[in-house]
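step: validate -> pass
step: tokenize input -> pass
step: predict -> running
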Amino acid sequence: MTDKDQPNFSARAEAFLFTEGGEITYRKLASLVDCKEEELKIALDELSMRLQNSGISLVRTDLAACLATSKETSDVVKEANRRELDRDIGNAGLEVLAIILYMGPSTRARIDYIRGVNTSSTLRNLLARGLLDRTENPEDAREYLYRLTTTLLAHLGASNTRELPDYATIVRELAAFEQKNQPFEEENGIKSAI
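step: predict -> pass
step: emit ->
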């Protein structure tokens, strides 16, 4: 096998760390990259070197690694995030929150379908504000479920979703909407949370 045929474990590790968006244990990362943990250590050393003088750095502990903004760029990123969080969440944010409050945990594909537009930046904004949590989807490891937080319910003055205005009526209407649009759900592997 020539060098050209060798898998680029460093690039693979970078891709998985990027798509995860958070820390990954070395064991899981080695499995994803399809290499031994010793090979992963070398790949991460290479990645760390490659990322020097860029806006991203590799952060490592004894058990896990993640990508983060570099020391040189962290202040400007923090300031941009602060400005973003100072803004109103707008109608898009309210719509996404309403979907999750009344329909329960939802995938981005489901939210996008209901709203008819891409919600990536809106979800990122709501996550940063602590209004939503992102968890792995037990039915499909390729996507996440977005869930409401206790912070959101407390902000709304509710101890659970059933205390939301017109909860029973809206849940029935959403169930009817999903029933009417069943082919989309089956085609995309989404099951109703209602």
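step: describe -> Residues 88-188 form a domain with the Arc Repressor Mutant, subunit A fold (CATH 1.10.10.10).
step: cleanup -> pass
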